Automatic annotation (TrEMBL):
GO molecular function: oxidoreductase activity
Leading EC class: oxidoreductase
Record keywords, A-Z: NAD, Oxidoreductase
Enzyme Commission no: 1.2.1.27
Protein name, UniProt field: methylmalonate-semialdehyde dehydrogenase (CoA acylating)
Signal peptide: none
Domain Aldehyde dehydrogenase: 17-480
Compositionally biased spans, kind Polar residues: 1-15, 28-37
Domain of life of the organism encoding this protein: Bacteria
A Pfam match: Aldedh
Amino acid sequence: MQQLHHFINGQSQPGDSGRNAPVYNPATGEQSASVSLASAEETRSAIAAASTAFPGWSNTSALKRSRILFRFKALLEKHSDELATLISREHGKVHSDALGEVTRGMEVVEFACGMPHLQKGEHSLNVGTGVDSHSLMQPLGVCAGIAPFNFPAMVPMWMFPIALATGNTFIMKPSEKDPSAPLRMAELLAEAGLPPGVFNVVNGDKEAVDVLLTDERVEAVSFVGSTPIAEYIYSTASAHGKRVQALGGAKNHMVVMPDADLDQAADALMGAAYGSAGERCMAISVAVPIGEQTAERLRDKILERMATLRVGPGEVEGQENDMGPLISRVHADKVIEFIDSGVEQGAELVVDGRDITVPGHENGYFVGATLFDHVRPDMRIYAEEIFGPVLCLVRQESLDEAIALINAHEYGNGTAIFTRDGDAARQYTTRIQVGMVGVNVPIPVPMAFHSFGGWKRSLFGPLHMHGPDGVRFYTRMKAVTTRWPDGLRSEASHFTMPTL
Ligand code: NAD
């Protein structure tokens, strides 16, 4: 059985807490590894390593820091297949989807490579007579990142490339369910030339996280995960004087207008609802067709496409599956329980994914693609985040009704509208209370040079991830005002070449 360690001060470090968690292959249900869970003391030793590395790293020129990230990016490209295999094995998503995640993370590294330009301050000459002002964007110190299971490579890369490029040192706490990809990235960073202690990986659970939230040497905490934990992270770390960005759960709606290209909308829904088995914070879990006719036609088109959906393991020879297993037995059972509740509360179960069997993978954590129609807002399958391959149709009569419905939901991460009507799209994008909006784009994840974040209970804290907000999050502004007394200008001739 493989034992997964921590990565502290530039090297792999075996855990000594005596606590471990099993890591499973979700496609087979077999345990593939055991991961050390750090004690409070081990977590503090990682903070000490990061604190010691901070003065040297923050004083390294921005250009040298970025050159290390350039080398890291080249190593990511070289090892992307290997990283995708690690992700598929522990998370379950299909290989091409895992490769896509590595690419989206790598784009943040590319953005961070431009930090010498992004971290330039501003300068004003003569703000008063003989007085100038300039600003510095300085790193904070030791920063921590806490990641969810669903993007084991991309979400850490939303955080650490920008933190490191701006001169901070970092402690990553990956999900204990799939820690291999972040551990491999720590090795690649070291290979790229990152000095020891600048980037550390501490594996663990609440015990390690609580130290990161309260230790006075940690200056900032970035978190991505479920809303109850995001709220806990935000309130605890803020109460301990830290800067916090905590991204939470989601329930993303896609409005389909009567004038939309319904084939395009149905195609988009397949990937957005069932890709990665619905375990994406930007997955569409609610489709909102406007009008009965749109609803009937859209439902037929979804059903046609669901009939050919391939469910199976993430790593296969030959033709790839569309959708893999869920992360754990516990989570698969929770999704099935949600489906049960939908039936009990009176929704129409059009396609039932509860009893799927994947030949050769009978113990895998598979739940088939599921479709509910006539879902009402008071049902649990609508109100709560399921985080599985379950799509709900909530029929509405008008765009105004749809906007009111979505604005009343507690989450506001992502949303989309499918239409050919510019006015409907304009109304929607301006009135909807959601952080990321797509127009005929089902999963509107902003590129690395824009910022990613939801509204309402999908994000706690003012700053989003990566892009310009990421640079602001990991730097502190300092305004410097200078006035110099008159210099010795008249005596400068002493230094010129004497001539006759
Ligand atoms: P989770 O909240 O269970 O865990 C996230 C991290 O918090 C893990 O590293 C875990 O070890 C740690 N953690 C868990 N319980 C804790 C506790 N009591 N105290 C301290 N730390 C704790 O989330 P998950 O199941 O790994 O991920 C799925 C969730 O993440 C979904 O809700 C999904 O919507 C959300 N998510 C959101 C975004 C976004 O951008 N908003 C992106 C990806 C995932």
